[in-house]
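Predict structure. Chain length: 188.
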Amino acid sequence: MGGSNRSRWRNATACRRHHQVDGDSMNTFKTAAIILLLTLLSGCGCENGPTETIQIAGQPFVLEVASDEAAIARGMGGRDQIPPDEGMLFVFPNNLPRRFWMKDCLVDIDIMFLDPLGRITSIHMMKAEPPQDPEETQAAYEQRLTRYPTSLGAKYAIELRASRIKDLGLEIGDKVDLPHDCLKQRLE
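Prediction complete.
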């Protein structure tokens, strides 16, 4: 009988050890499944809404994304203020020379143009222009607006509240970390 009890005890221990191994495997599987789920849910960390939160000079900015022709043409026109931690991020399908103007803009705006790697290639402090006079044609109004060009091609442009670029200490050649893959998805 003693051998039989010992045999039962060994079998029970073996079963417990077997369940313990299965428990470890299950925990490993659950952990892997959770990591996979979180990775899938986060995508590339892309925000699907109308904005992207970008770190500029170590500070978070909520930037409205303009990636289609209508949003790019509209820009920040018609706004009478820009909060200090907000702005607009323009995303273009290619890296070409660009020119911006202050059509229908009511407040001064800073702009920086960036290359495909996020390096600043040009910076301008754009001044608000007098609004279109009722007797002024659209063509005459647009003709008198100052143009702010890139010195090189630009894949991106960021507009911020006036004087923010200077306040942040940004200069040509500095880099802004952008979620390039996420921004590319916005063009598709």
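Summary: The longest strand covers residues 86-96.
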